[in-house]
Structure prediction request, 128 residues.
Amino acid sequence: MLLVLIRGLPGSGKSTESQRYVKQGYRHFEADMFMMVNGVYVFDREKLKQAHNWCLEGTMKALYAGQNVVVSNTFTQRFEMEPYFKLCKELNIVPSIVVMDGKWKSIHNVPEEAIQRMRERWEDISYS
Prediction:
């Protein structure tokens, strides 16, 4: 089983890149999926922690079932990836980390000020 973690700012191409993996049979999780209501993205800050927990839990179940998984989230800081790194250690797998740096318009209309705050807290991350 394989785990690919795709990270990047809003509008960088994470969701588009993840579809390449889906076409190869990977299960795909991203916190934004949790925010979909009747096919429409509805951001709710109050549900953000729940969305990330849903994403991690789905990833865990899929990996334990022997499936390949791709996760696409902003992952601006290491602590956001740590639960996935811990899972990898438990399963004795090494994740692939893909960094997206495209400059397209955010499909979820994230305000530029919010993207700038994410850019300012961006950390270089490697698995260890």
Notes: Strands lie at 3-7, 27-29, 36-37, 40-41, 69-72, 96-99. The chain is about 40% helix and 15% strand. Residues 48-64 form the longest helix (17 residues).
